[in-house]
Specification:
It is a single chain. By secondary structure, this protein is α/β, with parallel strands linked by helices. 18% of the residues lie in helices and 10% in strands. It contains four helices and eight strands. Strands 1-2-3-4-5-6-7-8 form an eight-stranded mixed beta sheet, with no helix packed on it. The longest helix has 14 residues. The N and C termini lie far apart (66 Å).
């Protein structure tokens, strides 16, 4: 049934306040509904802060999809919360978020972060592949071992085992891609243009070859190596 308050839908212990363009949780929402709400849906707003959520003392499910929440989001301690979805927000880093969730929602069973930069699947970028996403799952399960579902997939026993043995080392790290705009960019004092060639090979008239041993090799979906293999060499 619909409440008399504009935009609020109440059905038993479920409260929805969707698409109201609010940047924060309205004070009246917690005052009037916080003491009995078990499922709260605040999706499709402009939320940047979760201040006021502490009024929802019985909360078990929290839906925060399609908002503007960032890495610094802060939840109050919600000991009954078992389901949290933060899909399609602006979260780009996992470490601090997962540490925070482990502290304030210790019994979390279901977490979904799809559509955030921190979730490396193809919904975010076609540069991501299944191995990127699987490492992300191991890392989260290492931090939150009580999870039963992550994103749209049930956690398997094999994932629990893998997360327990090497989850701490599977954090997905992306390099900074705008060096020129940083303090070490081309306008910085003492900046020297980087070149992968040794000093003796930078002269265009000098054609001697240079050989070296590479310390790194990249295997994956976007490897450049196969671009130079012709059909008649296969």
């Amino acid at each position: 049934m619909a409440s008399n308050d504009l935009g609020i839908v109440v059905d038993g212990t479920q409260v929805s306040y969707i698409g109201q363009n609010c940047e924060g949780i309205p004070e009246f929402l917690g005052r009037k509904y916080g003491h009995f709400t078990k499922r709260l849906d605040l999706s499709f707003n402009l939320l940047r802060s979760l201040e006021g959520l502490e009024e929802f003392i019985c909360l078990e499910e929290l839906i925060l999809d399609n908002n503007l929440l960032r890495n610094d989001l802060q939840l109050p301690r919600l000991p009954h919360l078992h389901t949290l979805t933060i899909n399609k927000n602006q979260i780009s880093e996992l470490d601090s978020l997962l540490d925070h969730l482990a502290e304030v929602v210790p019994w979390l069973k279901y977490l979904s972060l799809l559509g955030n930069e921190a979730c490396p699947n193809e919904l975010v970028s076609l540069d991501n592949d299944e191995s990127d996403y699987q490492r992300y799952r191991y890392f989260i399960l290492h931090k939150l071992p009580k999870l039963k579902f992550l994103d749209a997939r049930k956690v398997t026993k094999e994932e629990y085992d893998e997360a327990a043995t090497r989850g701490a080392f599977t954090k997905v790290v992306k390099p900074k891609d705008d060096l020129a705009s940083s303090d070490f960019g081309s306008n910085s004092p003492g900046f020297q243009q980087y070149t992968p060639l040794p000093q003796g090979s930078r002269n265009g008239t000098n054609h001697k070859g240079v050989f070296a041993k590479c310390r790194y090799v990249y295997h994956g979906r976007h490897s450049e190596g196969n671009r130079f293999i012709r059909d008649d060499q296969l």
